[in-house]
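Anyone? Bumping this.
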Amino acid sequence: MAFDITIADLGDLVRGAALLGTGGGGDPAIGHTLVAEALRDAGTITVIDPDELSDDDFVIPTALMGAPSVLVERLPRGSEPVDALRALERHTGRTATATMPIESGGINSTIPLFVAAQLGIPVVDADGMGRAFPELQMETFAVYGVNGSPLAIADEHGHTAIVNTVANNKKMEDWARALTIKMGGVGYIAEYGMDGAEVRRTAIPRTLSLALRLGRTIREAREHHRDPVEALSELLPETLYHRGEVIFSGKIVDVERTTVEGFTRGKARIAGFGDEPECTVDFQNEYLVARIGDETRVLVPDLITILHLETGEPITAETLRYGQRVRVFAISTPEMMRTPAALETFGPAAFGLTEDFVPFERLARTGVR
Amino acid sequence: MAFDITIADLGDLVRGAALLGTGGGGDPAIGHTLVAEALRDAGTITVIDPDELSDDDFVIPTALMGAPSVLVERLPRGSEPVDALRALERHTGRTATATMPIESGGINSTIPLFVAAQLGIPVVDADGMGRAFPELQMETFAVYGVNGSPLAIADEHGHTAIVNTVANNKKMEDWARALTIKMGGVGYIAEYGMDGAEVRRTAIPRTLSLALRLGRTIREAREHHRDPVEALSELLPETLYHRGEVIFSGKIVDVERTTVEGFTRGKARIAGFGDEPECTVDFQNEYLVARIGDETRVLVPDLITILHLETGEPITAETLRYGQRVRVFAISTPEMMRTPAALETFGPAAFGLTEDFVPFERLARTGVR
């Protein structure tokens, strides 16, 4: 069902998007600022359900590519993602009737809202990751047969490039990544253009409305002096993400973090409040694997989130700090992200992990050493 | 005047092109191989004079970008530069009526011949450097107001990208360079698309026929037991390159060479046969500055060539070796490459040299310390 987003919704939306961003996806405060400015001019933004798309619709997803941390010092001029979408329209000779996120995250859930506000087109309530991932080929769109190419990328000077690697979405990622580095670390992209039927077949549906519900659930629980994480656990079984569970509570005792080829890689160690073994969480932009002692407890593409112990506010990998008191909260990924084709694209092996994927709700019972 | 190139012409053509390549532009033997194969199928290639172009003609120059040394192990599949030209045609909606070199050099004088043979279109007898330079913004096309963008680049898998940095030709170079690195060191490009009037206004005319004459002059002098370099000196005053002169003869006693960001940089030292001071030649792909003792004698964009002492065969910077007996032969660059706008784009300062440009025919008399 279509609904409108107003400034009053933004706080909840970016909080929920940051939760789904599973440590990555950028600073939700920046996403908030971007869309708030666009909404001041536009009033509202319309979000439509994938089921409301006709087969004649042409949806062009839009996103930021690169290091979201660059944005802290350099907010977009305003037209960059629109420039990318326009460049793709001119190149393909087709006009976008809607835009859509490629992933859920503090910034990339908001870029399409920003585009929609400027162009007066709707945003589709869906995306291609149902969470955040670091690379452009890691899309359910790609898993289920939509090519990312042609991709358009724009910088803050209105300069653009088109990448067309046909069905090779990994090469599209590589070439576009090289361009973002030349652009100073960040570019704005339009890619995976597709019709309404392809959206319904390949996208994770209703992730914008889910982000809004998740963010609202955390806030309202706090307002009613309830435990936000308990409220989340009650909500999730009503969604495609059918289970959410706290796997560890404790205090962050160490964070290793390095930036390699534009990615933030590292590991956080969390000590429990008792004498249980420590929990470690490895990340590459996003949280990839959570272990307790030497037992693997959650594996990508299941969602690992780290939440402030009391407030339930999601903490991104870039803002993890020694001494934070946190809960590690795992969420089942939707079933269409656990198929063999999906796991080949963004399962543990795609990140260099040696474990085979096991759904966390089974790991939680048995553990894997 | 239009003329046809046949296999019998190729040896002379690539020898002359390597001379104009001024140390860069790649191995002429590879250029020879490429075009010989294309000519076996096509029979002849037609070269037309810039004055024969109508204003309705649309000329798309084609070239190799990257490290020509990669080609030694990986000859093009055949369709790469054609793929680039076709991608630019599709993107612009305009069809090329001819192609043209962007520079003179052992390989880039031949890529357009290769394209022309496959497509049955003519090659324009002109180029945008009148020699070789290492970067794409260093074109008389750019100096005199033609944009390089949109540029198309293709790899050996038929994958392509379009770069559109509007009037910023240096940024076009940077982005395309980043893509060639992702392509394994070499890409094939189509850029600086322009009409017939723009070719006549901005290109260095008749450099393909000049390469053919220069190469033939060297060969015929050898066959007639004349000094090839003397024969070149007699020919050049009939051309836009109005003067050629040996500035040093000797033996190579040292070559420093490093590869930095895809460029071959270095310095050659040449000891004279008497007790005169040594000659040094600095290069970045191409020879940039020749000094005798501490006197600067030739500066980019004037052409510095290093020729085998007896045969007059041009030696590229990549094939300079200790012990070679050589002559350093300087050639005046055409006047349209010595204007203030031209010198800003590819004069000494563009290569980090501190000397102001002085035409070599004046330096030869006075020297600069």
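Late reply, but here is one note on the structure posted above: Residues 227-366 of chain B form a domain with the CV3147-like fold (CATH 2.40.390.10).
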